[in-house]
Amino acid sequence: MNGIEWGAIDWLGRGWLLVLSFTAAVLLVATLRKVSRHLFGAERAFALWLLPPLAMLASQLPHVVGVDHAPLPALVYLITSAIGAPPSVQASPVIGWRHGILAVWFGGIVISLALAALAQSRYRSRLSGATAIAVRSHWPVWRAASVDVGPALVGAWQARIVVPADFEHRYDATERSLILAHEAMHAQRHDGWWCLLAQVVVAMFWFHPMAWWALGALRHDQELACDAAVLGEHRAQRRSYANAMLKTQSAQFALPVGCPWSPRHPLTERIAMLKSPLPSRFRRHAGTMAIVALACAVGGIVYAASAPSGQGPAMAAGSVGEYQLDMKLELGSDDLHASHAERTSLALCMQPGKSGSVTTHGWTVEATPAPEGDSRLRIDLAVTGTDGVAVARAELHGALGEPVHAQGNGEDGKHRYAIDITPLAGCPARSATADTGARLRPVSQAVRNESARAVAVSVALASGLTLVNPEALDNRLVTLNFDNIPAERAMQLIADIDGAKAVFDGNRVSFESK
Fold first, then answer.
1. pLDDT of the residue at 292
2. What pLDDT, on a 0 to 100 scale, did the predictor assign at position 1?
3. Computed over its alpha carbons, how large is the radius of gyration of the chain?
4. 475 and 414, same structural domain?
5. CA 7: distance to chain centroid?
6. Coil/strand/helix, residue 336
7. How many whole angstroms separate alpha carbon 331 and alpha carbon 408?
């Protein structure tokens, strides 16, 4: 399994968190925008649109793993080990459709951004022939060559104000002043950047109906907020402001990044707002504090909700998280004369961010789990061959309880591996073997031409096992190499060589004839 394929799973997991956080935040804005506009004014209501990007950001922030004050050693629980045929290469059945979804998602993003760029380009092409006019403004003002272009603020960086060709004839002096004040207020409030951000978010969620609704609602609230800000400085000119609105045609061409004077939404609400008194300073300040508090609450809730399993209240209370990685290994190599492979099943238990490794048949497998949120785990895997050469490094992503797969060939072409890992919360292997710790204690010992009875006694002393009848083994000479395998398995191998079988009762071992 290559890194690109596992990267697809990672992106889908993060993307799902983005979709959930975006949906929840937009629903909250949809619920509060009109109430907030009535209580605190249009400017404060528009600030609610900070919540969706804030929620999206909070859903992607990394989570701090609890500090390990008393680190526990990794548990290596060897279940079976056998020598067999070379490992077969099998494709993972769960990657294809996920990879396809990711391709469709990114394809939709590219198409959405391309369409927005095309619409922006078409609008700007209609500015061909525009000329600069001299007015008192912090931003450049251009007169379009056509009467159906403008008034508008065009662009985010290097924004400029565009007015129609008949600007001086269509509007009187007061109306012209208010129109320029309106577009200048858009620039002052950085509304071009808001539009650009909105277009990027909509492109990310092109498949989501609420994203397109949110884009229209944001542009509507943006105009109301700008109207309110202008009226706050020109309270006595409401009638002229309304007249300027009525004289302006609706925008006939899409302007993704920019603010046309009169977008396609109806003017009724904007004109009705002109008749309403502006909120008092106290209510505006109260609205600011309410929105700040709401933003903090939304960010905190989303961040907490996106925490991986095991990092919630229990972690805050001081408990130490731990993961068990159940592994099925098929490790093979070729030489000039034969091909062979070892199959091994084992479990590694370790804390988040801590590495655990096991060496079996000369191969070393090292794994490091890291929580990613939504009960998902990233596993950094490293495999070293029998000759000490690094065979593979992989980054696996999966949910707790679901197997993930990695396979491939070493760069030298002599090593092959296939690994299935099922991550679990906690360490069931430790609980299941609490009473048989000595049997599972790893033994690393090389003996040459020693009696089977002496080797059994040596293993028992090293692991803490109790030999009931060592005399059942004879004194035939054996050569063995125990490489970090459980004492139970070592005793079984010794018994097999002597034609007997090892029988365990807790940490007591006896030998019986087969």
1. 94
2. 41
3. 35
4. no
5. 10
6. coil
7. 10
Question: What are 141-172's pLDDT values in tens digits?
Answer: 999 998 888 899 998 888 999 999 999 999 99
Q: Is 428 helix (H, G, I), strand (E, B) or coil?
A: helix
List C-alpha distances in Å: 177 to 151, 167, 275: 12, 11, 20
Last residue in a domain, options 399, 432, 465: 432
Measured torsion, CA atoms of residues 23, 24, 29, 31, in degrees rounded to the nearest 10 = 110
CA–CA separation, 278 and 265 (whole Å):
22
Range of the domain at 502: 434-513
Residues 407 and 447 in one domain: no
Residue with structure tokens 């070493």? Answer: 410
C-alpha to C-alpha distance for 428 and 324, rounded to whole angstroms: 7
pTM score above 0.85 = no
User: DSSP characters for 73-89?
Assistant: PPEEEEEEEEEESPPPP
Q: Which of the listed residues 387, 414, 432 is the one where a domain comes to its end? A: 432
E strand intervals along 169-275: 258-260
Q: Quick check: 77 and 433 in contact, CB under 8 A? A: yes
Q: Collapsing DSSP states into helix, strand and coil, what is residue 182?
A: helix
Which has the closest alpha carbon to 310: 395, 398, 370, 379?
370
Strand partners, 504: 509
The reply to whether 464 and 414 lie within a common domain is no
The encoded tokens of residue 442 equal: 């790893």
User: Residue 86: its pLDDT value, please?
Assistant: 39
The CATH number for 462's domain is 3.55.50.10
Q: Distances from the Cα of 120 to the Cαs of 255, 266, 418, in angstroms?
A: 6, 22, 51
Beta bridge partners of 399: 376
Asked if 327 and 412 sit in the same domain, the reply is yes
**Tokens for 369?**
């789990």
Entry field: residues in the chain: 514
Residue 356 counted as domain residue: yes
Those residues of the chain that have pLDDT short of 50 are 1-3, 5-6, 65-73, 77-95, 263-264, 309-320, 336-338, 434
Measure the CA–CA gap between 263 and 333, rounded to whole angstroms: 68
In a domain, 461, yes or no: yes
* Short-list 217, 212, 190, CA closest to 201: 212
User: By three-state DSSP, how is residue 27 classified?
Assistant: helix
Q: Is 168 domain-assigned?
A: no
The answer to the question of residue 508 being in a domain is yes
Residue type, 99: H
Angle at 16 between CA 10 and CA 20, to 5 degrees: 150
8 Å CB contact between 179 and 259: no
Tell me the C-alpha distance between 421 and 419, whole Å: 6
Residue 337 CB neighbours (<10 A):
5
Residue 51's SS3 state is helix
Backbone phi and psi for residue 159, each to the nearest 5 degrees, phi listed first: -65, 150
Helix/strand/coil for 158: coil
